[in-house]
Amino acid sequence: MSYGYTARLIQKNKEASGRSLGVKLGRLCIKHDLSVSEVANTLGVSRQAVYNWFTGVNTPKPPLTDLIEELISEL
Question: Could you state, in order of their start, the residue ranges of all structural domains in the chain?
């Protein structure tokens, strides 16, 4: 199933710093077609928070960083 990430989200993710944990997660989710909603549900946060991480607007804070690193390693 394709979640059809918007061209805008993909472009913002590409423009954001790849050093950010949220941006790295976003790149992997786009590559593996893992939806923002699925990530949000897995981490217990809002879809808006995940979107902001993917685009580099905000960065995830501990203790979520450990969960995100675990999710990244599974992708």
Answer: 7-74
- pTM attached to this predicted model: 0.89
- The pair of structure tokens assigned to 45 is 């946060």
Give the model's confidence band at 31: pLDDT under 50 very low, under 70 low, under 90 confident, else very high: very high
Name residue 5's amino acid: Y
Instruction: Identify the CATH number of the domain defined by range 7-74.
Output: 1.10.260
**16: which residues sit within 8 A by CB, 6+ positions away?**
23, 26, 54, 55, 56
Short-list 6, 3, 49, 54, CA closest to 26:
54
CB–CB of 36/54 below 8 Å?
Answer: yes
